[in-house]
Design brief:
Elements (H helix, E strand, L loop, with lengths): L5 H5 L3 E8 L4 E13 L2 E8 L7 E12 L2 E12 L7 E2 L8 E4 H10 L4 E2 L3 E2 L6 H6 L5 E6 L13 E7 L12 E5 L10 E6 L12 E14 L5 E5 L12 E10 H14 L3
Parallel strand pairs: 2-9
Antiparallel strand pairs: 1-2, 1-4, 2-3, 3-7, 4-5, 4-8, 6-7, 10-11, 10-13, 11-12, 12-16, 13-14, 14-15, 14-16
Amino acid sequence: MEINSITKKLLFNTVRVDTVMDDGSEASGTAFVINHTHSRGTTTFIVTNRHLVEGVRQGGLVFTQKRGGQPLFGQRFQLNIDDFPHAWFMHPDAEVDLAIVPMRPLEQAARDQGVELYYHAIDSRLAPDAATQRALDALEDILFVGYPNGVWDQTNLMPILRRGTTATPMALDFEGRKEFLIDAAVYPGSSGSPVFIYQPETGRATQTVGKKFLFAGVIAAVFFREETNQLVPVPVPGNIQGTVMGSEMIDLGLVIKAQAVIDLINAYLEKWRD
């Protein structure tokens, strides 16, 4: 398979997160790779949800290996990170469910083991600014990538591509926070999935540039209907056992806007600047 389209590249944007929790249970989730250009150059980060890295005893990131600039389909490399929770830089606002880790030391750790990592980072400049958000319709097609219920193509190491629509306008902050809702089935394992506004040119499925392609945000929570018929957002669990007992999951996901990711990266760069 040639990696010659946006959606094919997105298959290599995500990284599977496999963890063992403090209670011994196993969980999985999604992370993704992003490039951010700033005054001192361009830095690459891995982004996921805070709740996927807190309370973790052991954690690792699963990559596809690279040779000659091409992916080695099915050639898995799991990079286990010592002291997993403390390797991540959390958003300074504890209410924002985001965490990042710089890519460079991870790539170096892989090279020290004779492994090159294959991935496609998205550009943070794809995040829509306020004017772009205002120009978007209330209902937009979205695409997200991840490992719902831990499902993936284990033979080829491929994540799952899924579609839906926005459920609230991106121009508005849902409940006053940098978030919006999507109408899509969000299952355990989808935590940390990147969400994109995506509308390809009609009849040109192999094109490299879509009519609309924007980095919209990161899945963080799903809405449950409780026995009292109240709807409550709950962080997307990393395993089925983490779902809320006596509650029904409905097809509404909570997405943290991309600007919050940029804010987190800038906070990291400010802390570690020379």
